[in-house]
Amino acid sequence: MAEQDIIWLVSRVFPPDEGGVQTYAEQVADAYRSNGHRVRAFVKSSAGPRRITHGRLDILDVGPGSKLVTYVRLFRAMLEVWRTGERPVAIHACTWRAALAALAFPAPLVVTVHGREFGRPRGAAFRLMRRVLCRAERIIAVSQTSRTMLLKRMPELAARCIIAWNGTAMRGAGPLAGGSATVADRPQVLTVCRLVPRKNVAAAIAAAASLLRLGYRFDYRIVGRGEELLDLQALIDGLGAAASIRLLGYVPDRELRQLYAASDIFLHPQIALEEGAEFEGFGISVADAMATGLACVVGKDGGPSELIRDNDTGLVVDGRSVDAIEAALETLLRDAELRLSIGLRAMDWAASALDWRRHCRQALGSLVQNRQIAENVTTGAKART
Question: Rounded to two decimals, what is the model's pTM?
């Protein structure tokens, strides 16, 4: 890839702030860089305003602010760079709302759609979203579930919407399939997510507590923060399970990798809410768990169920049934060899199927090539005259 191929990335959220889109933006920026592009990322985080340069990756963080202030700051930052004469071969907006700051720039626009951010808008917000997505030359759905939901709302976008699975941040993390199951015969169960209703952590806790009462010995660690934190802690205390089920809150990346590597089972029984509008588009934490060799239990609603072949590379359950979650968890707790074999197959599949660099190549598709052809034609025409 030629050095002058500049990609602009736009995101309203970015690390160190937490969340799936934050992770997506960071990983995509790094993957474009790894693919040989120069990348200029226009982002917002609580750590800004700041500017960070890592080789071919330049991050312009406009800092915290309201939605309107963020859009204005992102647009001004992009305009300032545009006025220097820099022309990106494509602008990749990590969500349709982030693309609002890019609409004024005459460059090919790529927009990623994940889940709830396009499932929920109604009225004026829906019309604005339609305008943005109709302007995009390429729309990236992170799962078949996401694409189906988008086309249900806007079928006219079918020709420009493709599916490109996310990658995994755990590639090369040193998978330890089977985790610590050999240590005192006490399996380790892990959940990593934002603590919001669609993640269905309350049902996971209820299932785990039931098995603890039946005499199963295991530790269950839940990583993440969110609106349900206090309610979930009250649930754990009320079930008398605080000795074995712990909410860890925010965990730094290095410690999180250690938790993945030391675990045996990953529990993520997500559900869809609001008549399907509030759903999990992909499930990056599930992908990371599979890449680390964990046996995963996921809900049947949303993108995570696409990543798993039931009873082969994981278990898929009805997340609305505590009994179903409990039965799947019990199956894995009782059979160390089963969870080890499932984890190994999941790890092999993730290594072959989930790759951020491939995601970015799919995102661009032929846009860069078409832009180069057009520039060559223009250059040739000028030379002949």
Answer: 0.89
